[in-house]
Amino acid sequence: MKRSVIESGVGLIIGGALLLWALRGFEWEGFIEVVRREGDWLTVGGLCMIAAHALRSWRWQLMLDSTGIPHVPLVASWWALMVGYLVNLALPRMGELIRCTLLWRWQTTPFAVSIGTVVAERLIDIFTLLLLMLIVVGVEGPQWIELLGFRASHLPYFVGGLALVGVGVWVSWRLFLRKRAAGWLEAGLQGFKSLWQTRPRWLMASLSLFIWLGYWLAIWSVMRACTSGASQAEGWNAWVLLVGSGIAMALPVPGGIGTFHVIGLLLLTSQGWPASLAQVTVFTAHALQTFLILLLGSMGLIWGSWYQLRAR
Questions:
Q1: In whole angstroms, how large is the CA radius of gyration of the chain?
Q2: Does this model's pTM top 0.85?
Q3: What is the C-alpha end-to-end distance of the chain, expressed in Å?
Q4: Which end of the chain offers a freer environment for a tag, N or C, measured as fewer CB atoms within 10 Å?
Q5: Taking a C-beta distance cutoff of 8 angstroms, is the pair 282, 268 a contact?
Q6: How many other CB atoms sit within 10 Å of the CB of residue 95?
Q7: pLDDT tens-digit profile of 255-277?
Q8: CB atoms < 10 A from the CB of 112, how many?
Q9: Band of the pLDDT at 100, cuts 50, 70, 90?
Q10: In the prediction, which pLDDT does 25 show?
């Protein structure tokens, strides 16, 4: 826990510095005007984000059910996920442990099993994000990766490294861990197997697709709000920002502060957006997302307290 706090503090300092750089000369009047004038589009964007979160909690519930443990109600997986997101705003990655802890307290769901499902869920997201990124690279060209600070020539090594890690884990399990693993590791593997055991597979695939579709529609709606429907609010621009935001949120910075703004600003300006408009758009998208997490996460804490009191 102490290490997580230190890492979070360092990440916050770095993120804060990036945020100050990205928002230099920021036009607060433009942001206030968007909130005041385009409340309808921002509401649509917020509802799309909530829908994506709801689909994610449903997918997680299906994965948990596939492990053979007692059924987890959708309402429990939903509120645990929201509280986990809330914790991630302050302590990146700790939210994943917290949501599994909450399921254990609320539903006596084995902690190691739920952690295994979370790892499997994250793998699905990583490969989906890689697929979305490859689509962007195919359209924009390899130079697009360099905007994010990477070199296109490094991509084969990155993919090869992931493959080697996967093979290494499998070999280690076959030769050593399978025979000597403790009970918690066996339970974790039970949860991880949900990656290929969850049925029906078409529903899992559909949920994984519509989760990202919801995020894409949310970003597009924010773009519509910030541009008042101007030509910049194209679906492709929203797609590019979606991929960039996915990368930014995966970095160990609390709530994507700074990283989301810098990456979003670089990507939108590379698409021909004026810097001031790109700043307002990226800031509005991040602010909306953070507001929803604060609201829904707080509601999840209240629901969890009420649920435990009722269960006594």
A1: 20
A2: yes
A3: 29
A4: C
A5: yes
A6: 23
A7: 888 899 999 999 999 888 999 99
A8: 19
A9: very high
A10: 85
Range with top average pLDDT, 98-102, 163-167, 305-309: 98-102
- Cα 124 off chain centre by: 12
Tokens for 258, please give them.
């700074």
Q: Which of 52, 38, 50 is nearest to 224 (CA)?
A: 38
Question: Is residue 236 a contact partner of residue 125, using CB atoms and an 8 Å limit?
Answer: no
User: Could you give the CA distance from residue 113 to residue 42 in angstroms, rounded to a whole number?
Assistant: 37
The full 3-state SS of the chain, as one line of letters, equals CHHHHHHHHHHHHHHHHHHHHHCCCCCHHHHHHHHHHCHHHHHHHHHHHHHHHHHHHHHHHHHHHCCCCCCCCHHHHHHHHHHHHHHHCCCCCHHHHHHHHHHHHHHCCCHHHHHHHHHHHHHHHHHHHHHHHHHHHHHHCCHHHHHCCCCHHHHHHHHHHHHHHHHHHHHHHHHHHHHHCCHHHHHHHHHHCHHHHCCCHHHHHHHHHHHHHHHHHHHHHHHHHHHCCCCCCCHHHHHHHHHHHHHHHHCCCHHHCCHHHHHHHHHHHHCCCCHHHHHHHHHHHHHHHHHHHHHHHHHHHHHHHHHHHHHC
Distance set, CA 275 to CA 25, 258, 282, 312 (Å) = 10, 16, 10, 55
Q: What is the per-residue pLDDT across 139-173, written as a single tens digit (0 to 9) for each?
A: 888 777 776 666 555 556 556 665 665 665 565 55
Rounded distance, CA 149 to CA 195, Å?
Answer: 31
User: Can you give the length of the chain in residues?
Assistant: 312
